[in-house]
Amino acid sequence: MDYKCLLADRTNRMQANAIREILKVVATPGIISLAGGIPSPESFPMDIIRTLTQQVLEKYKSSAFQYDLTEGFLPLREQISILLGARGINILPDAVNITSGSQGVLDAIAKLTISKGDKIALESPTYLGALSAFNPYEPCYIPMEMDDEGLVPESLELVLKTHVIKFIYLVPTFQNPTGRSLTLERRIKIADIIQRHNVLLVEDDPYSSLRYKGDPVPAIKTLAPDHVIYISTLSKVFAPGLRIGFYAAPKFIREWLVLVKQGVDLHTSTFNQALAAEYLAGKHMDAHLPRIIDIYKPRQRAMTDALERMLPQGFSCAPSDGGMFLWVSGPKGFNALSLYDKAIEKGVAFVPGHFFYTDPEQGLETMRLNYTMADVATIEIAVEKLCDAIRDMQRREKK
Amino acid sequence: MDYKCLLADRTNRMQANAIREILKVVATPGIISLAGGIPSPESFPMDIIRTLTQQVLEKYKSSAFQYDLTEGFLPLREQISILLGARGINILPDAVNITSGSQGVLDAIAKLTISKGDKIALESPTYLGALSAFNPYEPCYIPMEMDDEGLVPESLELVLKTHVIKFIYLVPTFQNPTGRSLTLERRIKIADIIQRHNVLLVEDDPYSSLRYKGDPVPAIKTLAPDHVIYISTLSKVFAPGLRIGFYAAPKFIREWLVLVKQGVDLHTSTFNQALAAEYLAGKHMDAHLPRIIDIYKPRQRAMTDALERMLPQGFSCAPSDGGMFLWVSGPKGFNALSLYDKAIEKGVAFVPGHFFYTDPEQGLETMRLNYTMADVATIEIAVEKLCDAIRDMQRREKK
């Protein structure tokens, strides 16, 4: 039969994630991959998982395996309420909702709010997973300018003056793909702007716990609580395979998001939520997080130093205090898409930054480098190979 | 701020599940609930969960906690391929996809295929969870006639002659809410009809393993493989809280469904998929399923017998060979919505069948009774209370 005629109109906007295709290529042996975007398995608290599962079985018995509330497993919501409190977001457990990864709430927000053609303002470049959540609902994207201090507030103000938008989507801290963060001054400005314009901000914060230097900065949610949906996840501080995301949203929105989730997956795995509750209740995260930082901090340092030493003139790396990525920009005219094949020949892979822009003309000179998956020595070799590939390309272009 | 203006048009079609509201009421102590629709926790294989988790930790180590393929965890897909083979559906592991409960694939199918106003043909009454998956994509429903042998094929044929539909949605075996099953003869007719009309069937099969009498009947998927998406779940034969669903679909559709799922939740919990793989690979399900049937079979029998003994004249219970529900119909003019409050007064709850119809005029005389959550003695008392309530109501109406 002809299956094509079954496709809904919205499928025009859906396509395979380009990075996913790149990741398939770089699984080839002999290639050092700086292309991935996942936590190191060394960062998972494998030493306590057995104990956690035993505690869950003893404490919750069969109820950890039964259907549960769409809102989330109450013992986990209690723990997340405490965790959010430590981030300055004070809400009761009843107001915390759990989702299947932060992807789950990105999909729900899009389903709840976006009618075809509605406008979403976002950082340029932005997180690709958010685009794959939003795209099926057929929005228009309004990209906003960033610099080394994150989103430029004037760019947001201009967008809000010239467009009616459904929401703003930001990753303010250690952004994927750039590793950049919004300064406190800018957060205050942005909180003021969204309140003045009465517009909703979706603040996606998967990385703020992975800080390797500098002082913590508050979430924008703490500065404009009624205008922000704050999203976070346990994927980077516990284990991504458990698929535990969570969010704090104004009551009206929260109740609708629960209704949306009910139709999508009924609820998130009860057993995994119970494991996460035990992980947090037992203060295991507090003990384990410094160990995760001990793994990543030297890797970030090694990559930053190697780039500083070896990058050819005209190239620069954006300053970053944490997360999983560094962002390299080349001089005008440099094309990271062309570099990609040459880098693979040298034995190193990365993601051309171009893919993170909604405007296909932008970002050709940029690259995203991940440092969580390789050790310090390997990172140094990888950066050397990458810089060799750049020099080779520049030499050939001069000829 | 005014949150209402943020809502997308599709929210007009989304509303709180009426049954969920009923279930909140019946959590009151002292009320016997036949209203639920969930497996008994006694049916979960709690005695082997600890062993399974230890096996997963030894065998898969940290990879059970890492991000994984959207398609599903390969060791589970291998096991599901074997399980499907035993149901006469022969597909390779690569062609098996895992979802977050069967709700996950219902949402994905709707997102993939339904443009606003597209028509879906379904049994009347039908499964409410499917409606909450489909509704946000704004379809029109074309209800089809059922009798004690399931969907009436002539009704399907008529619908296909008079409407262009996107897909047919059926629960052919031990349907929720009616407990009824399509006979083999009708399955053959329906397979023929959908192939002649070149139309897609979504065959939802959560219950076929829960058979208490009669011979197994093949899935329609086995009779018309290119025209059917076959959906099933481990929720009723392992544990619903783990949220493991799976499906077998034609290649073109399967590849699109994976793309849809990527935007919704990236993938289903790796750890839970690994647990399920061990459950199946260790033949634990083969050993455990007879124990589940030993729990439910006497309960179904007790309810059937009690209804036969006690239901007033004019009332009947649909024949059912398995699953979790019995379906009672009263005489014309009987209103199960009015009975509901009287039944609560007597101390028993059920779901008025009305809620399972897309046409608000239909099903007023029907009731869904669940028998998985109460023991035999309690079921007998509950049926007695229910029949008392009916008689009281009839007496009052005669006055």
Please characterize this protein's 3D structure:
The structure is a homodimer of 399-residue chains. Chain A is of the alpha/beta class and 399 residues long. The first copy, chain A, has 2 domains: 4-44 and 287-398, Alpha-Beta Complex (Aspartate Aminotransferase, domain 1), CATH 3.90.1150.10; 67-283, Type I PLP-dependent aspartate aminotransferase-like (Major domain) (Aspartate Aminotransferase, domain 2). In chain A, 43% of the residues lie in helices and 14% in strands. Chain A is built from 13 helices and 15 strands. Chain A has a 7-stranded mixed sheet with strand order 2-10-9-8-7-3-4, sandwiched between helices. A 4-stranded antiparallel sheet of chain A has the order 11-12-15-14. In chain A, strand 11 (316-317) and strand 12 form a beta hairpin. In chain A, helix 6 (153-162) runs parallel beside helix 7 (184-197). The longest helix of chain A is centred in the last third of the chain and has 27 residues, at 284-310. Chain A is globular and about 70 Å long. At the A-B interface, helix 2, helix 4, helix 5, helix 9 and helix 10 of A face helix 2, helix 4, helix 5, helix 8 and helix 9 of B.
- Protein chain pair with the most extensive contact, residues per chain: A-B, 81 and 81 residues
N/C terminus separation of chain A: 55 Å
Number of helices of chain A: 13
Average pLDDT, all residues of chain A: 96
How would you describe this structure in keywords?
homodimer, 399 residues, alpha/beta, Aspartate Aminotransferase, domain 1, Aspartate Aminotransferase, domain 2, 2 domains, seven-stranded mixed beta sheet, four-stranded antiparallel beta sheet, 13 helices, 43% helix, 14% strand
